[in-house]
């Protein structure tokens, strides 16, 4: 894919009420970075946001009538993104703020399911703001808090000044256990260089290659409702047909449990890195930049979800070798 | 894709290209003048001589437009939540304001003199001559589309989970609830109100035969259907959303049930807009590659009105007499065709 991607990057901002989403949003909108953002908010009017292009979202979650049980989309986003394109010259990127209780899956799936949305815009990153003080409580009383961490590409572990070093370490561990793949920034009042949060696409995909497999010492696998991450790799190039068949079958059977998957794959007949992404049963992939001459052609795939069997996933992945 | 165009597109010999410069949401004819409703919030009135007047109407983008029942103005709905009457004399009158809800669709009837606008979860009605909303109906989810029958006496409203049929003149109208899973977007009523057809999020159409509500599914599309057009005898419903115009037969007792559609206008590009000529068996077709053609129903012949450009056709309309055609695209291009001087 050498064509310039002219699709509008979309950043999704999630996090529990009070974690610091609005602080981050206001920083994005007021700091001089020369980029203009259209902002899709949920609690319009309750927060003072300074932007010319603010759109109110209803968070209408629609089930697709296509037999796919976990396939839900945000109907309002489909409508809003299409409408915003009539003012395409007024902004460079889109930020979607979700309510504290929002499940990120329908937001992410909207970018996989709707062809009109994916032709015009691209999900750049899901950014989750976490309150260091209250994470434990949130994880205990809502599964949304856990899913918001699981779905994140970037996590702001915020309000670190309000906890002790020991408490902070505990929170770090909990986040890593749920999502071993996201880039975590520890912040006070969401103070992080915005380049670490916005328009991250290329950087965060490259990061998949850096992740060490078995970072959790996966042997203590638990069959319960806890969300974990599993990473698999192969040094042998893969056969595209075998890989596609395996992955399709896998998400058809285990898609309900797989919240997100991301990978960079080296195919035996493709000079380009093949980038694959998934949400539940939905998959999307394409060939992107070529492998560099001196680069190890290592295939990596990361899963975040429930009931993930590291050994079975690794075995299935390895069996796709050409 | 490369069309070999041996024919000079009609716009160069019998028409006029325009460059309004903002995405065209809708085009409405007011006698011999076309009113283009644009993404920059303005309405441009144009004839074959070119743009006559620009009226800056909305704070944001215009999302929807229809001809006012009085025939001397265009009704516009914007993402600024307002419904405006924009007269050919450049006057602007605010008829309604819906706060932060977008006014996504407007339909009007010259016969019943009423018009209806959809904003958020409500469909609001203005009765004859009203300059304020007369009454409104609320639905459980955002309105996907609205449509009137030929007499302007029945209103269809599509939404998540189905559609509803109402009598828009009555504030306390009865409602026929038509249920079908999924999200229903644009919709159309057959002129005699015998059928309601909706475009679905999953692609394809869902239809209800009225009044009993027998269900029909019409599939085979590769994109959402955004444009519907009934021919003058209401025998055919032309639809966008595929690489051909898909025409469903609605004659006979059960319409398209168990029958195959008719296909025309195949030239490789996705069909985005369709508009039947009001008095002849000719169909104007707009494509995602920016081309506009006149197609016949009975054979595969078509003539180019405008050649492929950069952006998809997003608006297409004949004037009442069928002597003029107007179109606009997503990139701010537009054009007019004069059929009166056709050789």
* Overall morphology of chain B: globular
Number of strands of chain B: 30
Question: Largest beta sheet of chain B: what is the strand line-up?
Answer: 14-15-16-17-18-19
Low-confidence stretches of chain B: none
**SS class of chain B:** mainly beta
Share of residues in helices of chain B: under 10%
> What is the CA-CA span between the terminal residues of chain A?
23 Å
Rg of chain B, rounded, reads: 19 Å
Estimate the mean pLDDT confidence of chain B: 95
User: Regions of chain A with pLDDT < 50 over 5+ consecutive residues?
Assistant: 213-223
Structural class of chain A: alpha/beta
Structure characterization notes:
Chain A is an alpha/beta fold. Chain A has ten helices and 14 strands. Chain A has helices at 21-30, 75-84, 104-113, 115-120, 135-141, 143-151, 165-178, 201-210, 240-254, 310-318, and strands spanning 8-15, 37-41, 54-56, 61-63, 72-74, 93-97, 121-131, 154-158, 183-186, 227-234, 258-265, 272-279, 282-290, 299-306. Chain A has a seven-stranded parallel beta sheet, sandwiched between helices. In chain A, a hairpin with an 8-residue loop joins strand 4 and strand 5. Mean pLDDT of chain A is 86; it is low at 213-223. By secondary structure, chain B is mostly beta strands. In chain B, 1% of the residues lie in helices and 51% in strands. In chain B, the strands form seven sheets. Chain B has a six-stranded antiparallel beta sheet, with no helix packed on it. Chain B has a four-stranded antiparallel beta sheet with strand order 1-30-29-28. In chain B, strand 7 and strand 8 (82-87) form a beta hairpin. Chain B is globular, with a radius of gyration of 19 Å. In chain B, 57% of the residues are buried. The interface between A and B is medium-sized, with 24 and 28 residues.
């Amino acid at each position: 894919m050498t064509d310039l991607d002219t699709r509008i990057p979309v950043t999704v901002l999630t996090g529990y009420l009070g974690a610091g989403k609005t602080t981050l949003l206001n920083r994005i909108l007021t700091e001089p970075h020369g980029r203009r953002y259209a902002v899709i908010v949920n609690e319009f009017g309750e927060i003072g946001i300074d932007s010319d292009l603010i759109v109110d979202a209803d968070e209408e979650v629609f089930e697709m009538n296509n037999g796919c049980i976990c396939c839900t989309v945000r109907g309002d986003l489909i409508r809003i993104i299409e409408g915003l394109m009539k003012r395409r010259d007024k902004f460079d990127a889109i930020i979607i703020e979700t309510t504290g209780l929002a499940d990120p899956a329908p937001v992410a799936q909207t970018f996989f399911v709707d062809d009109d949305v994916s032709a015009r815009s691209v999900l750049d990153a899901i950014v989750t703001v976490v309150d260091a003080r209250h994470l434990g409580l949130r994880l205990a009383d809502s599964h949304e808090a856990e899913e918001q961490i699981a779905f994140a590409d970037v996590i702001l572990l915020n309000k670190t000044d309000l906890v002790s070093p020991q408490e902070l370490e505990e929170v770090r561990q909990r986040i890593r256990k749920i999502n071993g793949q996201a880039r975590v920034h520890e912040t006070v009042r969401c103070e992080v260089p915005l380049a670490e949060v916005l328009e991250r696409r290329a950087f965060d995909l490259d990061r998949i290659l850096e992740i060490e497999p078995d970072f959790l010492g996966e042997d203590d696998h638990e069959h319960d409702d806890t969300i974990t991450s599993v990473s698999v790799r192969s040094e042998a190039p893969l056969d595209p047909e075998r890989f596609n068949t395996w992955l399709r079958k896998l998400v058809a059977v285990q898609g309900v449990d797989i919240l997100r998957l991301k990978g960079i794959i080296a195919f035996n007949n493709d000079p380009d890195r093949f980038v694959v992404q998934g949400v539940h049963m939905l998959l999307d992939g394409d060939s992107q930049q070529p492998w560099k001459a001196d680069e190890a052609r290592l295939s990596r795939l990361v899963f975040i979800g429930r009931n993930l069997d590291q050994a079975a996933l690794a075995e299935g992945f390895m069996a796709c070798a050409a | 894709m490369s069309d070999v165009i041996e024919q000079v597109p009609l716009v160069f010999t019998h028409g006029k290209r325009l460059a309004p410069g903002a995405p065209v949401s809708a085009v409405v004819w007011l006698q011999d003048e076309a009113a283009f409703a644009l993404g920059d919030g303005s309405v441009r009135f144009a004839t074959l001589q070119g743009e006559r007047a620009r009226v800056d109407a909305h704070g944001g983008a215009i999302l929807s437009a229809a001809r006012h029942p009085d025939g001397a103005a265009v009704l516009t709905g914007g993402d600024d939540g307002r419904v405006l009457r924009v007269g050919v004399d450049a006057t602007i009158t605010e008829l309604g304001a819906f706060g932060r809800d977008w006014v996504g669709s407007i339909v009007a009837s010259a016969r019943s003199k009423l018009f209806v606008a959809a904003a958020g979860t409500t469909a609001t009605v203005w009765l004859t001559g009203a300059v304020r909303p007369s009454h409104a109906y609320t639905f459980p989810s955002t309105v996907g589309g609205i449509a009137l029958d030929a007499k302007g006496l029945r209103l269809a409203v599509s939404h998540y989970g189905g559609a509803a049929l109402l009598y828009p003149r009555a504030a306390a109208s009865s409602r026929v609830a038509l249920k079908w899973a999924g999200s229903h977007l644009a919709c159309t009523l057959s002129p005699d109100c015998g059928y309601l057809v909706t475009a679905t999020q999953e692609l394809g159409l869902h239809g209800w035969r009225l009044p009993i509500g027998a269900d029909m599914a019409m599939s085979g599309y590769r994109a959402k259907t955004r444009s519907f057009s009934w021919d003058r005898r209401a025998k055919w419903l032309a639809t966008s959303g595929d690489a051909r115009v898909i025409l469903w037969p609605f004659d006979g007792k059960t319409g398209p049930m168990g029958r195959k559609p008719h296909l025309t206008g195949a030239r490789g590009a996705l069909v985005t807009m369709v508009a039947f000529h009001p008095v002849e068996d000719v169909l104007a077709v707009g494509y995602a590659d920016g081309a506009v053609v006149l197609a016949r129903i009975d054979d595969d012949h078509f003539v180019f009105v405008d050649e492929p450009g950069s952006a998809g056709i997003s608006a297409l309309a004949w004037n009442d007499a069928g002597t003029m055609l107007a179109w606009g695209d997503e990139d701010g291009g537009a054009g007019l065709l004069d059929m009166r001087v056709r050789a």
